[in-house]
Amino acid sequence: MSMSLETLADAGKWLTVGVLLLFSIMNIAIIVERIFFYRNENKSPAAAKADECIRMLKEKAYGDAVRACTGLSSGIIHLVMVTATFLLGDDSPAADTSILELELENSLSLEKMRSEKYVSILGSTGAVSPLIGLFGTVLGIMKSFAGISSGSAHGAGVLQAVSAGIWEALYTTAFGILVSVPALMLYNYFTNRANNRLDLLENMANRMLIIARRNRI
């Protein structure tokens, strides 16, 4: 009975290590993806082209703005493209800009999803990893006491068996904390970046509405 418990505890401990390793690889992939996402938002050709596209909108060169925005990818360019396409499709003063407002709101919702993509996974793995590590530690301690109950250790050997088993088990908790701390820190960082980006895009959407309404006067 104790032998089978030791085997199960050992298997569970290594399964815990495997899960934590999977979490760490997944977190690294998400962090790299988010870094490239924000880097492209700030340093891509689209970011450099945004001011030029906005100038074209102000000059009512809607076709030029659409052509300039085509093939570029960034949140600001997306909002400019939506506005230019709307104004190009109906340039009459009587056109209702409330339709543009709805289109911009839809665009902001899509950009919100892009900003927060995968970030919640960092928060989840950061919160769960220490508990998974602790579970591995509990399994390791169970294995140690199972060995004692089997009668394989006596006297000073009991203390040695227990201390060796606990030391072996505690690395899963350490591994869990090692996975958790950077995940939670970067979760907060990327959440803050996402909120700042959305604030910027909301301001840009309001700016697009102002330009559209002024151009209709």
Any overview of this molecule?
The chain is an all-alpha fold and 217 residues long. The chain has one domain. Helix content is 88%, strand content 0%. Helix 2 runs antiparallel to helix 3. The termini are far apart.
Let me know the number of strands: 0
Shape: rod-shaped
DSSP helical segment count: 7
Kindly, what is the distance between the CA atoms of the first and last residues, rounded to a whole number of angstroms? Answer: 86 Å
Largest sheet: none
Which residue ranges are poorly predicted, with pLDDT under 50 across at least 5 consecutive positions? Answer: none
Give a quick set of tags describing it.
single chain; mainly alpha
Describe the SSE topology.
Layout: H1 2-43, H2 45-58, H3 62-69, H4 75-89, H5 97-115, H6 119-149, H7 156-216
Helix pairs in contact: 1-2, 1-6, 1-7, 2-3, 2-4, 3-4, 4-5, 4-7, 5-7, 6-7
Sum this structure up briefly:
It contains seven helices and no strands.
